[in-house]
């Protein structure tokens, strides 16, 4: 067995973890934008905190899926077939959420925006919920036969442990999103984001502790928690404390560490299995009976070693470019999809234009 | 039943996805050109055009990205046996696409949109080129994967499974080289036709002639060579496919018996899977030989002898694809391609006569011609994908064996209906938005006072 096999298991863990660290606060912002934004300007401000970032973040999911396809085709085939209907729902959630970002401001009508706001909220809740259910199902066990084929029904996917995991991830995204909004907004919005974070934090901590214990029991390896499970619990407790202590940067970091350690603990407790069969442990899918050939893994290793650091580099640069806080007052004018008016501070009102004409120009 | 449903679903989501892909590639490149022109000449018209067409580009990219997600998941969701068998070859280019291309495109699109007032002009110009490069690269990896299904290379069979043993073979595969060139050119044609149509509509409805005249000219000047090369490359692709997938080409000509020399039928009634002799036929002598083999007297094998040969090689079965789809897919694509060429030459002539911005007839035709590239692209994919049937991977796996074995018919119906409803609704919304913004006013020219200020960012 090629030593690239465990390496690729680690890469896939990294990709899923990266996806949740980055897209986690996106989802949270999507869920919270109508809560922290009282009016349209507020909602737009909230959405624009992740505006330049969400698309690049979502690619992590695509790459995680594609990497499973390339490195562990058997895993990809069984998992995606088993979750067929759940994935249809997930895709619908991601599609409406993605379009909500782009299309919301493209028409100046209250009903249009209201619809997209609603879709963004629903999509942002459903997506982490379903992915959480899917990832936990790998460890929790699904009916799989000796040919590595899923034999259950849709309801087999919705067992208590996966559902608990899904809810835990939704809460974590919510908390991370709230902390992110504290970091990126000003004044009233920042205050409302703090409020949201304070409300969510204790519940999140309870769910994370429950999730970690449940995961540990499911893995059934040892009595004591392992390092990564301990880290998750410590990080979430730290996050609660930091939220109540009003330290936004550290609160955000602690939540991100919690998310990462939760995802990693699923994968760490799963290894060397990749999907547990509830029918018969002998039918478990493992890294070995699902992996690609050594040559493929070698080629993909070269590709990932070159491109992943590059991606991290330019994504980090993006975060640096858009590091500034966003204020509601930037958004008091209606959305200007094509070309916004130049800042009025520089070019005052155009002479001879009534306010109506002015706003017409802005809209066009 | 399950196979048919899964095929309909895949065809449905793929055809829809490929409405947006060529616009992204083509319009992305043209928008980058416009911004480069602004960067170099400092003329305000180019900035206004960049922002105008950039908005259309973004509306289109949004739906292209999210429908691309579905593509990625489809293989595992419905085609589990296929994914399991070929994942270690086919998955590699898909994963490379994500890492090397899709990340680039998506990240830099955010930088481009929101970075107008944050980045130096030169860096900002580079971000739109990075978006264009990302979309072009993305196409390369996807086409390498698709071409492998048409003509598998770079593998050995180990325990009945293809194992990748040469990744470079995937990118030197002749089907890939010509197919990818064809896709890029077709995307460019699509982008140009969209830009031309929008400019033409604007010129007919009182849009600024000085501005939209420029975009119409730019579109035409790129379009003429693009469509010409599309036709030439398409012809060569036919020869390459004739070599590796003779059945596909024979079916595209409804050629049941082997012929030498072969005439090309321009139009015929009958000659499909159930009645092998056409009743009405208009044909040009020698043209098929020339198209399919590049020789005046070239030989084209017929479907019946090919089917007999495959029966001996792969076991008993019917290896003939749907002839009606092949025959008409080929003709719709080729005839509309020729029509596009004529329209583009007409436009070129109008540029020369300096009547482009006032010729109402041409502008009317150019507006409606926007539908042509979409019909051509779809017909072309029907020809390529239906022509590979009954194989999912030519010579390695039959389509009917590729499906997820334990998938229930109910699940397939649910997912198919869900996608039809979702795409139907969102496709309509997208189309309406595209039309709204195509008919929108140009952004106003910048006043001298603005000139020293950065251009404001595009916000959601």
Describe this structure in words.
The complex is a heterodimer of chains A (364) and B (460). Chain A has helices spanning 4-36, 40-50, 54-71, 73-82, 84-103, 110-140, 160-184, 187-219, 227-244, 248-270, 287-290, 294-321, 355-363, and strands at 273-275, 285-286. Chain A has 364 residues and is mainly alpha-helical. A two-stranded antiparallel ribbon of chain A has the order 1-2. Chain A is globular and about 60 Å long. Chain B contains 14 helices and six strands. In chain B, α8 (246-252) crosses α11 (323-352). Chain B is globular, with a radius of gyration of 24 Å.
Summarize the structure.
Helices cover 72% and strands 1% of the residues of chain A. Chain A is an all-alpha fold and 364 residues long.
Share in helix of chain B: over 70%
Cα shape of chain A: globular
- Read across the widest sheet of chain A, the strand sequence of neighbours is 1-2
- Please report the number of helical segments of chain B: 14
Q: Largest interface, with Cβ-Cβ < 8 Å?
A: A-B, 87 and 88 residues
| Molecular shape of chain B | globular
Q: Could you tell me how far the N terminus lies from the C terminus of chain B, measured between alpha carbons in angstroms?
A: 44 Å
Cα-atom Rg of chain A, whole angstroms?
22 Å
The residue-averaged pLDDT of chain A reads: 86
